[in-house]
From TrEMBL:
Localization of this protein: Cell membrane
Pfam families: COX4_pro
Protein name: Cytochrome C oxidase subunit IV family protein
Organism this protein belongs to: Mycoplana ramosa
Entry's transmembrane regions: 7-28, 34-55, 67-93
Length: 96
């Protein structure tokens, strides 16, 4: 492993840890209540960014296999869209 690669991996690790802590702090603001839609969107966006960093840096797919990286990133995107759709549907049903 080259020094530049090691430094990049260290930086990615710091970003992933920071995003995990921020997501936990956002979710902890509402202890026994449902999260507001804005908080859910922020947590999902941080989760997708973390997944991208893990897939590209820790699985060493940055620039090597773009098709595999896109396919692996499609899974978290699919589930994030499903979670967001369910949250929106529940919010719409509550207003009716």
């Amino acid at each position: 492993m080259r020094a530049t690669s090691s430094a990049s991996l260290f930086a990615s690790t710091n970003w992933i840890l920071m995003m995990g802590i921020v997501s936990g702090l956002i979710a902890a603001q509402w202890k026994h209540e449902a999260l507001p839609l804005a908080a859910v969107i922020v947590i999902l966006a941080l989760t997708l960014f973390k997944a991208r960093l893990i897939i590209l840096d820790f699985m060493h797919l940055r620039g090597e296999r773009p098709g595999l990286a896109a396919a692996l990133l499609a899974w978290p995107v699919f589930f994030a869209v499903a979670i967001l759709a369910k949250s929106l549907a529940a919010g719409l049903l509550d207003t009716l």
